[in-house]
Structure formats: C-alpha cells, structure tokens
Amino acid sequence: MSFELDDEYLEIQSEARELAASVETIAAEADASNVIHPGILAALRSSNLGDLMVTEQYGGRFQKIDPLAICVVREALMASSSHLDSLFALQGIGSYAITVGGTDEQRAQWLPRVRAVEVLPALALTEPDAGSDLKAVTTSLVATADGLVLRGTKAFISNAGSAGFYVVFAKEGAGFSTVLVPADAPGISVTPTPELIAPHVLGDVRFDDVRLPEAARLGEPGAGMELVLATLGIFRVSVAGAAVGLAQAALEEAVRHTRTRIQFGRPLARLGPVAQMLADCWTEIEMARLLAYRAASLARTDPGATLQHSSMAKLAASEMASRVVDRCVQMMGRFGLVRDSKIERLYRQARPMRIYEGASEVLRLGIARQLTEDVA
Ligand SMILES: Cc1cc2nc3c(=O)[nH]c(=O)nc-3n(C[C@H](O)[C@H](O)[C@H](O)COP(=O)(O)OP(=O)(O)OC[C@H]3O[C@@H](n4cnc5c(N)ncnc54)[C@H](O)[C@@H]3O)c2cc1C
What we know:
With about 375 residues, the chain is an alpha+beta fold. It has helices at about 5-20, 25-30, 40-45, 65-80, 80-95, 95-100, 105-115, 225-260, 270-300, 305-330, 340-350, 360-370; strands at about 120-125, 140-145, 145-160, 165-170, 175-180, 190, 200-210, 215-220, 260-265, 265. It has 12 helices and 10 strands. β9 (about 260-265) and β10 (about 265) form a beta hairpin. The two termini are about 40 Å apart.
C-alpha cells in the first residue's frame, strides 16, 4: 500500500502546476469574470490536460477516465484560478454522459473536440424548482412520430451561452432520460444568471419545443438517472481535489503573512493561538487530501463504491476548505479582508463548494443511508 502519488500522477501534477503558474498574472481578472476568459481558455487549450477528459479511443490519455488524475489536476488549478479549474472540470462533467452513454457516432463527433478544448460542454440538471431534488425536474422529453421534443428551463448551468452542446436531463413519461442538444438547435435561449459572490460562467437555458432526432438520446429511454449518477460518481470526488487545492493556497498565504508580520515583538506564527490555527489547517488539509486521493483511487477500480466514497471526500474537503480559509483570513487580520486579494478571493470561492454537486446536508443523508441500509 502506498500513500504517495506514483510517477505517472506526479508527472500529471507537474503539468497541472505548470499550467496553473502560467495563468497567475491573469487569474484575478479571470476569477472576477462571469464570461469565459479568453486567456484562460487559450492556456487550457495549449496544455495537454484535455486528454484526461476523454478515453484513449478519442485521443485521451487513459483507457478509462481516471478520477485520480482529474483530482490531482483540479487541486493544482484551483490553487491558482477558480475560472481555470471550472473550465477544466466542465470538459469532463459535461461530456462524461457521452463517454459512457453515447453512440459511436456521438462520441466520434464530440469527444475529440472536447479533448482539444475546441468545444465546451454543459450538463443541464438543475431547474428553478429542482435543485437537490433531481426527481422534481419538469423539463419534458416527448417522443413523437417526427422525433423528440424537449421543453423546459434549466437554471444555473455552467458554461451556458458558451457551450457547444448541452447534455440535458429530462422527464420522459414516468422516468428520466438524457439527450445531447447542440447549442445551435432552434428553440434554445440563454439568459445570464445573476452574478454570484464568486463569479462563475452561469446561465439559465430555455428549451422551447426544441426538436431533436431520436439519435440525440444518450443511453436508453429511462436511463437518465443512471447516467447522472455515473457522472457524479466520477466527478464529485474531483471537487474534493479542488477544495484541497484552495485550502492549501489559503494556508500558503497565511504562512507567508504570519512568518513576517511582527506583533507583540514576535512573528504572528510564534503566538500560541496563531500557531494552533496553522497546525490545525495543515493537519485538516492533509486529512482531506488523503481521503480525496483514496476515494479517487477507489473510483478507478470499484465503481460500486464510488458514489459513497466520493460523497464522503467531497463533504469532508469542502467543509474543511471553508474552515481553513476562514481561519486564514482571521490570521491575516485586516489584510485578509482586502477586496480581490488572493485570500479574499479564496474565501468567496470556498463557499459554493458546499452547495454544488451535492449540498453537504444531502451528502450526509446519502452516506448515513448507506450505513443503515437495513433500517426501514
Ligand atoms: C457555481 C455553481 C455552478 C453550478 N453548475 C451547475 C451545472 O453546471 N449544471 C447544473 O445542473 N446545476 C449547476 N448548479 C446548480 C447546483 O447543482 C445546485 O445549486 C445544487 O444541486 C443545490 O440545489 P439548490 O441550489 O437548488 O438548493 P436546494 O435544493 O434548494 O437546497 C437548499 C439547501 O437545503 C438543504 N437541503 C436540500 N435538500 C435537503 C435534504 N434532502 N435534506 C437536508 N437538507 C437539504 C441544503 O442545505 C441545501 O443547501 C451550479 C451551482 C453553482 C453554485
């Protein structure tokens, strides 16, 4: 048993760190933007990291999508820019349903372009009245003699307006199905979502009787929930990686500050309560990183265990990141409060992680249910 990344992952980590370092000078500007930042897009395109989001057959690096590699990359990217991290993550989150549920034609049409970051994908689950409760979606898919008709509105969709296609989760009869909708299909309109405390490329997407061929389906009719759960199983754990990267970046800011800021005749780091905060932050980051890497490793080999361990890792790491970044602001005093400083950005960016891809309370319910399966 090894608790360290092997050479292959260390190589991926150094590629990701190189990309992260290359955007440092534009990160603050990009992270303040709710539209795709051209410099960040160009940087991601010029890296080879899109290779991790598709399988070997479509130009990818591995035979199967590798959650550990994605986790390691998100850890490095998030430490530099949340915009870069989201853009990278969405290449996989938005296209995984094609990888596992698409036909050969759908895969051949889209996946090489996803790999090259020539097309941006979007995954459209959430609706105005359906967030955590996915089964409450009302967007409808109806099969007619002339093909499929999609009607409804999705809300808070990452990449909306910039995506080349939407993977849409919809109600079909008594079940749920998933369809692949090219962004230029007639009947689609996008309105930007109000700006968040940590800006993000988001929009609401309306599908007004969008007509699609039967071949637009991803998976069988009624298999939509399976595809969504498969996507979350693989990608939820990568949020844990991003949360660890964010917390590590916050701690580095606090360490730099508390080493050099002198109060009461000593560096802050030598004052007992500050030293305790530093120690707790570092320890909690290490714990979350181990859990994230283990869950991501399990997701490679044991898909049955994936969702539970991914949920635990995402829960632990996102809650940890909020605690850590809050303590780091505290250690930096008034300097931690300056708008658009690195630590202030990280403070805002930590918050949504406890809500998207499974709010903490919802994850806890699922984890507890696994533990008490036999209880009525
Ligand atoms: C930055 C960002 C990017 C996003 N990108 C996408 C995207 O690309 N595609 C997409 O489809 N969606 C996206 N979303 C939406 C996201 O998936 C939802 O915000 C999330 O599923 C939670 O739904 P909600 O916000 O409607 O909260 P609600 O479901 O209304 O829940 C609100 C709160 O109630 C509590 N709660 C809810 N249910 C339970 C329960 N059963 N038990 C106990 N407590 C509960 C939790 O505390 C939860 O935070 C994004 C959101 C954000 C913030």
